[in-house]
Amino acid sequence: MTKPLSAAPPTTVAFFVQAALSFGLALLAVIVGIWYLPVDGWVRGFLALGMLFLTTSAFTLAKCIRDRQDENSVVGRVDQARVDKLLAEHDPFKAPAL
Questions:
Q1: Rounded CA separation 95/49 (Å)
Q2: Which stretches of the chain score pLDDT less than 50?
């Protein structure tokens, strides 16, 4: 008998809140840093757009990685189920058909 695949434990609410707060604090710190930077407005705008692009790209990359992991885990479970079915149906003592 094969060992069942176990899913990763879900994240706790405290971990989710900590991650969201740290992201928000880091984003706020960069925004404040750009705002008080002693440069012209167009330089601030360029840095703000760059930060916005970096932030959205980070979310997109995280989603792509999560989707790939989910896809691989589903495929792995389907393959494991096929192997389990083949092993369950196989009878090593059955005489070969002639």
A1: 72
A2: 1
